[in-house]
Amino acid sequence: MRWRILLHQGLIRKDLSTNIKPFAVEDRGLSANLYSLIQSRFPANHEQVLIETGTGRTYSYADLERESARYARFFADLGLVKGDRVVAQLDKSPEVLFLYLGCLRAGLIYLPLNTAYRKAELEYFLSDAEPRAIVCAPQLLPALQALAEAQGIAHVFTLDQAGGGSLQTQSADTSTTFEPVVCTADDVAAILYTSGTTGRPKGAMISHSNLSSNALALQEAWGWRSDDVLLHALPLYHVHGLFVACHCVLFGGSRMLMLDKFDSRKVLELLPRVTVMMGVPTFYTRLLAEPDFGSAQSAHMRLFISGSAPLLEQTFSEFQARTGHAILERYGMTETGMSTSNPLRGDRLPSTVGLPLPGVSVRVVDDSGADVAAGDVGQLLVKGPNVFQGYWRMPEKTAEEFTDDGFFKTGDLASIGPQGYVSIVGRGKDLIITGGLNVYPKEVERFIDDLDGVFESAVIGLPHADFGESVNAVVVRDNSSPPVTENAIISVLKDKLAGFKVPKQIFFVDELPRNAMGKVQKNVLRERYQKA
Ligand code: AMP
Prior knowledge:
alpha/beta, nine-stranded mixed sheet, 18 helices
């Protein structure tokens, strides 16, 4: 039996080599609740602004403390207890961050979902996660209410982008003090679903100490300062926008300008007021597409950070030529948080994701699990306090994804250069990253294959000027049915899947290319249609 299963059964203790000591509090026998650690790093003056929104609303650390306590108390009064799941399918707003922090505080497991998810996807998430409560954007209420009733989930609330909704009205008279619930380092703080190669999304269980150790590693690696101001234009349902961006600000006792979404004109206007920007590569290509963007808006900036998808060398060089800044590229994933980063001081090498973060170990191995020679390509493995606790209710799947000595198999293909810098050279799992969002082909293929008139399909990513990659489907028709058309497939999928997963183009073929083992050769398809 592998170590992680033993760990889940409490039969062994996790022994992770790290020089990061996230839990000074735990050492003194106190709680490892992440909220307590965040609270201990608040600025001395709690009236200091924490968030300013794109429309000029401001929120202080005192607001965070009060609002998160109110949510924590409200859920506790409803009878929710440590370990219960709270699903949040919400449009971005400061209140979403306070809700997340309220859940941490109450020991509840926060489960954020992209608002683009449709009924069939939600049905699965709810039945798998069995949440006690759902908080959703008002426009999503009819669908979620029906699903909640069908699945016996008693509590459904709304929260809108202006901070209104039934969660607010019903908790208006709730007390705004709440002592954080005592947690151990391995208690689960959040579950984030990642799509599987099998098409069935898996809930990655992320613990209080996964999050705090990673936040502390990033404070150190990126030299976070209390006078830093972050431009936050990322979504709050993903590890990048929720954990990396917000935790950097909160652990630094610093400030953020929060935009609903990335808008290059708005970003140009705000850049003079911030010191750090975090983004997916698309943010940087869009900034470069603005003819008036240059050192005038960026000379004062401390740091531009990129991640979640590969940053093209061309983007790195153009950005440096235009602004004088070398974008700092880092690498991570839902299951591991951040694992590597180019350095704050020292060379930031394009087309690399830098060096392992403090406390994190990486290896590159071949199919047999043996380390490859320096510079050779293999699968990247990661170990450290950042690595998640396993997939929710999938112990076998969890065990498969770890080596016997506790390294997580990322599924990414990588090499390690002479100076120890890691380069991600491909994605072993055929993941498509479009505009920074992940699409696993299998999930889309399942829906296409179910359609009348379709025999089988293969979904592939093709280069796309704006999104980095686009989703495309290659379809073999079922000749016994009336011929299915591109429009018919796309319009059915739009009802079933989030928009970013719906193929931009459908190519029809008589048969899919396969290798001797019967596996579809997606590389052949990519090459063929890339040139088309
Ligand atoms: P997610 O779980 O949504 O954060 O997606 C994780 C995946 O994004 C990784 O497994 C990588 O394939 C990819 N990824 C993240 N950061 C980078 C990067 N800097 N360069 C290349 N791929 C990246």
